[in-house]
Write a structure and sequence with these properties.
Blueprint lengths: L16 H22 L1 H14 L9 H6 L1 E5 L4 E2 L2 H7 L1 H8 L7 H22 L6 H6 L1 E5 L6 H4 L8 H11 L2 E3 L5 E3 L3
Antiparallel strand pairs: 1-2, 1-3, 4-5
Amino acid sequence: MPTPVPNTPSPYPKLEARPRLLARLLDVAVALAMFAALRGAAGALLAALYLFVADALFQGQSPGKKCLGIKVVQIATRQGAGIWASMRRNALASLCALLTLIPVAGAWIALGAALILAIVEFISMRRHPLGMRLGDRLAVTQVIDGKDVQGSLVKFPSMLKADQASVDAQQAFATLPRRSLSGETSRHAA
């Protein structure tokens, strides 16, 4: 299945990395607490399930994101991320939690995979004009300041005037190469 592309570019500005990282740390702490409370396979499964659906728990907010006032929105609909978007954007993090089920060295393998994933996702987030990490690109979501989804921004986006940086980011997003099922690369025109 090719990566879904939103019909319109995102009207939201790029969110700085600090609140996103703090929110993720809070969510990982919740998952670790679940893992520690149940131990073994049940703890790993519960932690993986939590990471998988966390962004849909409060209409686009995981508990960590809710504490920091940030939100995951689906770009095409400008609605908070639902269960399917949460599952797509957090699949790799959930997989890291499931790696703890591997006998003997599972915890070390999971830790190594989580560190590699964190580095790759951070670099991806920092380089993308809208701050989209790999999971966001797969789910076509964006993490934004929670105040941005209030009022006229969601209901009347055409009435908003974007600053030049936001316009540049939208144009950069629209020109990113897309891969089809056959592996051919093409440019998406907005």
